[in-house]
Design a protein that fits this description.
Helix content: 55-70%
Shape: elongated
Distance between the termini: 51 Å
CATH topology of the largest domain: Outer membrane efflux proteins (OEP)
Number of helices: 10
CATH architecture of the largest domain: Up-down Bundle
Number of domains: 2
Length: about 425
């Protein structure tokens, strides 16, 4: 068993120690935002929205077309056969310069679609920042917990060696030595499992950063956390103005209002201009004595077209009604989102307050438990307590230390949630 343990520790220690690079939280955020696959994709979508946001897509710009038609006919009749060649090129301009304000509305819609695309990118950036922060500190947490299990394993090994020495001189029994060995083996197992947990946390972090899976990091930021103070009313006000998901919903609501306006624009007439020039070149080539004949003519034209729909079976009216219903639905969704976000904010604020209180208790518990281990170790050496009592003290210390680290991580997570929902996580990253 001891040989297996030594081999496993050697392998895991080698993996943890290989190719370690220093990594701060700021570096992790910069790296992750630059490499993230989803961000690269959504930024491409943002580029597409920017390209589409052009007056040329609204229909207000004139269109210029060149067309030509070449044709050859063979005419067979009783008097004389002939071949006819026709070439008719044409250059034309069509311009709809009034269509019920739909061009202006469409341009406003493209503006908001581009803003919505940027808003979707911002939401993904916020999510990515939160994921990186939690993945980074989870790696730090798992590494800190390794130190706890290493400390316990060292205490158990020392206790086992002392019991073996005591047994050799008849000062303790084989039963006590076996109990010490069992505790030591259990702590070895816990240490090995924790090292695996650490490696898995690193792999999650590497995936979040979009880097190679086999890179191990030397974390330069610790779990030390400056606990900020929040005011609930300030958080509500910040959320109402800065929450990116809510801002995107406002854009969706405004876009639906533009759809209603576009539907109403069909009530207006359409006025367009058509102008151009064409040429007709016709040649008749006879097979008999009739002389060949060529005819060439050029024509220019200009015209105004006014189109006004008088009746189309109520299609326009129904389109407006449907658009208005959709607009009302967006308003309901906005109200629902506000209610949901307020509810989430209350829960997150309560959780943050709870985690602060739990951290204070955890710090007191781990301080008391560490002192108890030191005192109990001295008592065990003096024979004032037995090995069972000492093991209970060890377990209490282990649980207190783990609870303390988890409390710090939970508070970091709760703080990140508040920053995220109040729209301040990007500003925090920029700092």
């Amino acid at each position: 068993m001891k040989r297996i343990y030594i081999v496993l520790v050697f392998i895991l220690s080698g993996l943890i120690g290989q190719a370690q690079q220093e990594l701060s939280l700021a570096d992790a955020l910069s790296m992750g935002l630059q490499n993230n696959y989803d961000l690269q994709i959504i930024k491409k979508n943002e580029e597409v929205s920017s390209i589409n946001n052009n007056w040329g897509n609204t229909g207000i710009m004139p269109s210029i077309n060149f067309t030509t038609n070449a044709r050859e006919n063979w005419n067979f009749n009783d008097s004389e056969n002939y071949r006819q060649q026709t070439l008719t090129p044409e250059l034309s301009l069509n311009w709809v310069f009034f269509d019920g304000f739909s061009a202006k509305i469409s341009k406003q819609k493209y503006d908001e679609l581009e803003e919505l695309s940027k808003g979707n990118t911002a939401v993904l950036i916020e999510n990515t920042i939160q994921d990186i922060i939690l993945a980074y500190y989870n790696g730090v947490l798992q590494l800190e917990m390794i130190e706890v299990f290493e400390e316990l394993e060292e205490l158990s090994r020392d206790r086992f060696e002392r019991s073996e020495n005591s047994k050799s001189i008849g000062a303790s029994t084989t039963y006590e030595s076996l109990q010490a060995k069992t505790s030591w083996l259990e702590d070895q197992s816990n240490l090995l499992q924790q090292k695996v947990n650490y490696e898995n946390a690193i792999r999650v972090l590497n995936y979040t950063l979009s880097v190679e899976d086999d890179i191990f990091w030397n974390f330069t930021d610790s779990l030390d956390f400056n606990i900020p103070e929040y005011n609930m009313e300030d958080l509500k006000a910040r959320m109402a103005t800065s929450n990116q998901t809510l801002k995107n919903q406002y854009l969706n609501q405004s876009l639906q209002a533009k759809e209603t306006a576009l539907a109403k624009s069909n009530y207006y007439p359409t006025l367009s201009l058509s102008t151009g020039i064409n040429n007709s070149d016709v040649g008749n080539y006879y097979t008999g004595n009739t002389a060949d004949m060529n005819q060439n003519s050029t024509n220019a034209f200009i015209g105004l077209n006014l189109t006004f729909n008088i009746f189309n079976g109520g299609i326009t009216r129904r389109s407006v009604q449907i658009a208005q219903i959709s607009e009302e639905s967006e308003q309901i969704e906005t109200d629902q989102m506000k209610h949901s976000l307020n509810n989430q904010l209350l829960q997150m604020y309560s959780n943050y307050t709870l985690q602060k209180a739990l951290l204070e208790l955890a710090e007191e518990k781990v301080t008391a438990a560490r002192l108890n281990v030191e005192l109990s170790d001295a008592k065990l050496r003096n024979g004032a307590i037995n090995s069972f009592n000492y093991r209970d003290v060890q377990i209490i210390y282990m649980n207190a230390a783990i609870s303390n680290f988890r409390s710090i991580y939970n508070l970091i997570e709760a703080n990140t949630d508040l920053l995220r929902i109040s729209g301040g996580i990007i500003n925090e990253f920029n700092k």
